[in-house]
Amino acid sequence: MILNKIGNIIKQNKSFAVVSHIIPDGDAIGSTLGLYNFLSEIGKDVDVFNPDKLPSKFNFLPGFFDVKDTLVKRHYDCIFVLDCSDKDRLGHLVELLNMADVVINIDHHISNDLFADINYVDTNAGAVGEIIYNLIRINGFEISYNTAMCLYTSIVTDTGGFKYSNTTSMTLNIAGDLINTGIDFPEINRILFDTLTAQQVKLLSRVTSTLELYNNNSIAMLHVTKDMLEECGANENDASEMVNYARDIDTVEVGVFIKEVEKGKFRVSLRSKNKIDVRIIAEKFNGGGHIRAAGCTVYGDFDEVKNKVLNEIINHWK
Ligand code: 5GP
Ligand code: MN
Fold first, then answer.
1. What is the pLDDT of residue 6?
2. Measured between alpha carbons, how far is 104 from 136 in angstroms, rounded to an integer?
3. For 200-228, how does the pLDDT look when each residue is reduced to its tens digit (9 = 90+)?
């Protein structure tokens, strides 16, 4: 069993690094910090990294302020790469892969290209946090309160609050066990799902007014420009969940959110309800993700990007 093999590597070594993907989401942050807290608690020498600045709403998580975005040349016995389907998703931290004896890739994306020395990809896991939970438990360790906060955050965010189809009985059993450590899960849920800044509420009204519907109202598109963010005093991450308003419209199967990153470069988020595998569409633009949530970066002017994405969705429908 690979999780036992990974457990033995943990037991037999001293120095570790833990890292996840660019533009980190709740699973990237929660699983990374969960493993970081666990390894630190059992006395290991651990550094934790992310290539991008973490969204501040996760700053309640233990270890949040320990996350670094730059490398100091050194050697690690082992590096864990979490929730990351390929090396490119590590951005400028890809160099880390050359700084250890063993690189371990733990993920749940079907498109994972198995880039590491040891690869454990469980596509049935709702979140990487579930796999980290199993790794800790199978190897006979306890889950602390701090580790539980992080793993709960990983799981509850990637399953949309246990609402999406990636939620299994295993997901709920693990969440139940995490809750038994005494974590304040209603407060965590409130921070994650029911908290907006005033800037975000202002931005929401700007973004929802960009709504466009296509394909008999089954495709909804929303967008945000850099100017709109600036006008509302909002930052890059403030729009990250707004794709859900496109998806949630009753007639819609695919919700699209286009965010201007810089002139000629746009981040596209795709969400679907029941039928369309949005990962396939994102992969057409060198992106990826899951069946119901995927993303990619598309280049061109805004109308060009919008039409390319729209055409790809409509082609895939046929
Ligand atoms: P989001 O729309 O929230 O940025 O991303 C949705 C999901 O798609 C994420 O959980 C992530 O797994 C995946 N994803 C987003 N962008 C990319 C990308 O550029 N490449 C790959 N491989 N996956 C992505
Ligand atoms: Mn994930």
1. 98
2. 15
3. 999 999 999 999 999 999 999 999 999 99
Structure tokens at 196: 């907006």
By most ligand atoms within 8 Å of CB, the mutation choice from 87, 89, 192, 270 for ligand 1 is 89
Using CA atoms, how far apart are residues 126 and 124, in angstroms rounded to an integer? 6
Pocket perturbation via mutation, ligand 1, pick of 81, 108, 109 by most ligand atoms within 8 A of CB: 109
